[in-house]
Fold this sequence. Notes:
Mean pLDDT: 86
Number of domains: 2
Number of strands: 5
Strand order of the largest sheet: 2-3-4-1-5
Radius of gyration: 24 Å
Number of helices: 12
Strand content: 5-15%
Shape: globular
Low-confidence stretches: none
CATH architecture of the largest domain: 3-Layer(aba) Sandwich
Amino acid sequence: METLNEKIISLTKEIGLPGIRQNFETLLDEFSSEQGDYNKFLHRLLELEYVSRNESRKASRIRLAEFPYKKYLEDLNRDDLPADGKTKLAELENLNFVKQGRNIIFSGNPGTGKTHIAIGLGIRACLKDYKVLFTTVPRLITQLKESRSEKTLRQFENRFEKYDLVICDEFGYISFDKDGAELLFSNLSLRAGIKSTIITTNLPFDRWGEIFGDTILTAAMVDRLTHKAHILNMNGKSYRIKETLEWKKKSEN
């Protein structure tokens, strides 16, 4: 026959109260000497349930954001960042740009920290309870085309529009056709001035026409994305090459 404590724990499983389940018996021991202080006991129990759910929600936000890997701003060697990155990161990491619905464009050669910073900002936004999505531009265009062919494009667009922050990585690594360019423009435009988008690109704006293949569409895209945006020049020495050389030097010693 189940004891009363076992019944309580069983009920927490059924109702979905992991914080109470994990801490109930520990708190019983802690409060056993405080006879009759039920309000204090209940308050502490509910407080722990709140903490448990809050941590679970943050973990879920990070998982659903679909980051390719976890990179934190705290892991950055800021001395190795290009000058613009060093100067402006302190302004960006407070996440006011998300609250204001402003975009960020990291433009520069590979290996200078663009994606690391973007993911770091995305994870920090998840921890602040913002809804975030990480994707690459080629992947996004593929999803948009597939949704259109499956007649689910409107549902996809509705979800895409509601993210507080979308990170579009690898803009400019491959070109795309007219349909892809129009779909990308349409969906990024839906967010302009309302929700934040981060773009990482290896191309300066005057070369975006190589990707879109349409000067009018390119001009409209640049205008929409850069309006009141934070634009960071991330041209500099590749820290990945630096790390590889350091690793090689250590392995040879």
